[in-house]
Write a structure and sequence with these properties.
Helices cover 61% and strands 0% of the residues. By secondary structure, it is an all-alpha fold. The chain has one domain. The radius of gyration is 17 Å and the shape is globular. 46% of the residues are buried.
């Protein structure tokens, strides 16, 4: 079953205010699926935001974001082509996925009892990236395009195969780019490469977690929906987001590759 979510265009004022803070804190003009899912669960978005906001405001999350990216080894990438709009979208997902992986892993690890340590160096969030076009819905895509997106998602071997990574859904706005991804990402999709890169991203985020825990806000009282959400958060921070980190970084490398 697909995850319940509140999309940005449908957010009531109290949710929209947190979404606006998230966009500013991450430096991207969109909100990751796990936050949109949290918004659909009473009290959960507020529980997350109270902890995450200080880490965004201090630059601690951005520092962790940059260190995680540096620790993910990538295969050599072939030359790819992309319009400026597609390249900008990929950068939006790179910043968003890396930042969210850092912060959400720290929140999960604190909930699991991990203690804090001295935080690592902070970094600037960076200028707000251009707003991407509206995210399409899977059910609204032409059947062939939807199947291409599903086939790409299936390569990740997610515990919940119904979860659609948003980058693949967003790239459906450029069907020719989406259709080319199996070839563009061929080196990453080779046997075991994606899994190793995903695991490296997980390890890097977990190594950053104790320092980032020190930068989080106080933990609020747990909402009733929290136990179920934490199970989903575990999947997102161990599978979904870290699996998309190497995808986005490889696309950046491919689009920047020489002839």
């Amino acid at each position: 079953m697909s995850l319940a979510e509140i999309r940005e265009a449908d957010a009531p004022p109290e949710v929209a205010a947190i979404f606006a803070g998230l966009r500013a804190g991450v430096g991207v003009a969109q909100v990751n699926l796990i936050w949109r899912h949290a918004a659909a669960l009473p009290g959960v978005l507020e529980w997350l935001w109270a902890q995450a906001r200080p880490a965004f405001d201090s630059g601690a999350a951005a520092g962790a974001r940059d260190r995680i990216a540096a620790r993910v080894s990538l295969p050599g990438m072939p030359r790819g082509t992309a319009s400026p709009d597609v390249a900008a979208l990929v950068e939006t997902y790179n910043r968003g996925n890396l930042t969210n992986l850092a912060v959400l892993t720290a929140i999960r690890r604190r909930a699991e009892g991990v203690a804090s340590r001295a935080p690592g160096p902070s970094a600037p969030v960076g200028a707000m990236l251009p707003a991407p076009p509206p995210l399409p819905r899977l059910g609204d895509l032409p059947p062939a395009v939807a199947e291409t997106a599903r086939a790409l998602a299936a390569r990740h071997g997610l515990t919940d195969p119904s979860v659609m990574p948003s980058l693949y859904l967003h790239l459906a706005l450029w069907p020719e780019v989406l259709a080319a991804l199996p070839g563009t990402l061929g080196p990453l999709f080779a046997e075991g490469v994606l899994a190793r890169a995903r695991d490296a991203a997980v390890a890097a985020a977990e190594a950053e977690a104790p320092g980032l825990i020190a930068a989080l806000g106080p933990t609020p009282a747990a909402p009733a929906a929290l136990p179920g959400f934490l199970a989903t958060l575990g999947m997102f921070t161990r599978e979904v987001i870290p699996g998309m980190v190497p995808v986005g970084l490889c696309l950046r490398a491919s689009f920047a590759a020489g002839p």
